[in-house]
Amino acid sequence: MSSSWTVEVETKAPAAALFKALFTDWHNLGPKLIPEIITGVTLLSGDGSAGSIRQLNFTTAVPFSFVKERLEFIDHEKFELKISVVEGGDLGKKIESATTHFKVEPKGAGSIVKLTGTYKALPGVDSTEDIKKAKEGFIKSVKAVEEFLAANPGSYA
């Protein structure tokens, strides 16, 4: 049986800039903004459109060294995308499958970033602490991008 969790983060950053920085250019920006967590992001196949696969490599701050994810769909006009874990992370250790749906919605001059994670845990696995850490990591990433955009007005416009 699949389970899901959600988190929303309100930001002062415009939706379009936040979406570009946080999702379409994360391979460049992520390792610069949170080097204590991400050591690098590599596009393994595709061109960044649906079907592309990328690998995120992590420091020892994360309980696994990498995760490979496939971009299931991306809508640049609606600021929305969905990814699936295809290798690494807790796949095969704690979970059977995992997908994450992201949506950035404008709110005044800022935006709200919404994440819905859906996963199928392996029998007997309690994911409560992992979900808590995933939410904290996501919030940290969004806030790092928000700070970057505030310090660099016009970037990702």
UniProtKB/TrEMBL annotation:
Source species, domain of life: Eukaryota
Any one annotated GO CC term: cytoplasm
InterPro entries for the chain: Bet_v_I/MLP (IPR000916), Bet_v_I_allergen (IPR024949), Plant_def-hormone_signal (IPR050279), START-like_dom_sf (IPR023393)
SMART domains recorded: Bet_v_1
Example GO BP: defense response
Record family assignment: Belongs to the BetVI family.
Pfam families: Bet_v_1
Protein name (database record): Bet v I/Major latex protein domain-containing protein
A molecular-function term among this protein's GO annotations: signaling receptor activity
Domain spans labelled Bet v I/Major latex protein: 1-152
